[in-house]
Amino acid sequence: MAEAQNEVKLAATNPEAARHDDDEAAAKRAKKILIRRPGMTGGRMSWFDRRNVKTWRHATQLAFVLLNVYLCVQFYLWVRYYETGGATLQVARPDGVGGWLPIAGLMNLKYTLMTFEIPPIHPAAMFLLVAFFLVSLLLKKTFCSWLCPIGTLSEALWRFGQRVFGRAFLPPRWLDLPLRSLKYLLMAVFLYVVVTMSADAIEAFMVSPYGLIADVKMLNFFRFIGATALITIIVLMISSIFIKNLWCRYLCPYGALVGLLSLLSPYKVRRDAEACIDCAKCAKVCPAQLPVDKKMQICSAECTACLSCVAECPAQDALQFSLRPAKEIAANGDVQGVRRRWRRRTLSGAMLTLLLAVLVGGVIGAAKWTGHWETLIPDAIYQQLIPRAQQLAHP
Question: Tell me, which fold does domain 268-346 have in CATH?
């Protein structure tokens, strides 16, 4: 207290000396030693460097998009076989399309929790939902930025806009905050509908004609899309070129739910103040505009763990996706001390990709091994329902 009062008196009686002290403090901060990350050349890391987290993320995104395209084509061929009365190619029903039915997944999850029985209709939807929940609880919101095809499309659109127009935009903070609340309102509506349903009501819906082919109804929504829905999708896509992650940031209820779960994740983007050189490059590339350069750890539900900030950081061990650091004292420039602080606590792009594959693949494997992955409906029922799917109304 006395020291602070002396500083105030010094500033009042001798402003030149006070300014000199401020300049010295600023110069001292500016002299932080940069220990450059291995592989960084000209502020960039080679695309083919195995340490480049962006390479691993984009490769994972591409693999998941291709998987979904394959499932979509196979599912379309399967539907056409029944629509044409067996005149077209017969293929197996891909149960992975359950991932496109998050509401059915929520309903089945509640049914299982209430009855301790695995539902026979669309069980894959529930198991995939559980897998993505586990991913969010353990590895932050990586589902959105590493796996979700809609998230990949949204990112591709705003990056295209940034390349063509020089920048992408986010609304001012006074508008951004209320817009972000929209996805939580949508999430609350869906959760309310599911939570208030009884187990009997869920079972009745699932075994109804509509529930049995809910996946076909979902496919037909896009095959025979109406003018209003088409215009809405076009507007969203064009807007996404100019506004970063428009759908994900403001409207996706699924992203809102996994974002809340991700707050419990032990892994977060963490900053080491001693290794950090305060260049603020991390904050500039953050799609969510989070203050990565000022926080010791990012706890926001808006952080998708895309790790763009980590990829951009030039300083070794300054920014990483990790568990809490060890209580190791290390000053700026103490490379070994900082390294010991983060040893065996960080996740590389390769390890994160592997963990995502293990978590999602493990849940799917367990469901298949226990015989709870496929929807077992006789062909006769599909032959009866699929050709008149457009006439079936929601019960």
Answer: Alpha-Beta Plaits (3.30.70)
